[in-house]
Amino acid sequence: MTEKADIVGLITEGIQDKKGRRISVIDLSGIESAAASNFIICEGTSTMQVSAIADNIREHLLEKAGIKPYNYDGYQNSQWIVIDYGDTLVHVFIREMREHYNLEELWSDAPLTEIADLD
After folding, report:
1. pTM of the model
2. Calculated CA dihedral for residues 83, 9, 59, 3, nearest 10 degrees
3. Which residues contact 95 (CB under 8 A, 6 or more apart)?
4. Is the CB of residue 51 less than 8 Å from the CB of residue 102?
5. DSSP letter at 116?
6. pLDDT tens across 55-100, in order?
7. Which family does the similarity line name (predicted)?
8. Which of 32, 55, 99, 114 matches a 20 to 30 Å C-alpha distance to 26?
């Protein structure tokens, strides 16, 4: 498995551990103007769950791979938390904010992989 696949898999596990839903992976590697090679997007049902998902992603990557994010933001209101892993940006939304910003549509020219919910 490549390093890129490893980090996507670990992030997905971290999301699923806290019942994050509607996980999408957008491959932006072919888009020159993109801020990262991957966007991983998911949602929680409440601001408390959004925080818990984001915390778990950070803890999971640190524990399993020794990877710390370069930065993260959004904990102030926990409606949209972004975690920066350099080549991979993770976006954890509450549903209303995800629908409002619609990142999947914004990057619709990039390949999108949807990961099925566990339940």
Report:
1. 0.93
2. -80
3. 43, 45
4. no
5. P
6. 999 999 999 999 999 999 999 999 999 999 999 999 999 999 999 9
7. Belongs to the Iojap/RsfS family.
8. 55
